[in-house]
Amino acid sequence: MTGEQLLTILADCSGNRDLTDPGTDALHRTFEELGLDSLAVMESATRVEREFGVALPDERIVDLAGPAALLAEINSLAEHA
């Protein structure tokens, strides 16, 4: 999965279209800085599982600070699947 794909999913699930604007550097900010609540992040994780076949355990998601950490987790799980 690419950062662009993840940011598109996060934007769709949160309604925050600014996440896909290259000038925001959204990938390297925290969920809090981006105004994303846990519901949007969990919804995004569900969509990742549905579209990419990578299941993210809830207990791992809540410990992730931002999109870059989430992307690393997704790609790590996909690599070991």
Automatic annotation (TrEMBL):
Signal peptide per UniProt: none
Q: Which residues form the Carrier domain?
A: 1-78
Q: Which InterPro entries match?
A: ACP-like_sf, PP-bd_ACP, Ppantetheine_attach_site
One Pfam family linked to the record: PP-binding
Q: Which UniProt keywords are present, listed alphabetically?
A: Phosphopantetheine, Phosphoprotein
Do the record's keywords include Phosphoprotein? yes
Task: Note the superkingdom of the native organism.
Answer: Bacteria
Kindly provide the name given to this protein in its UniProt entry: Actinorhodin polyketide synthase acyl carrier protein
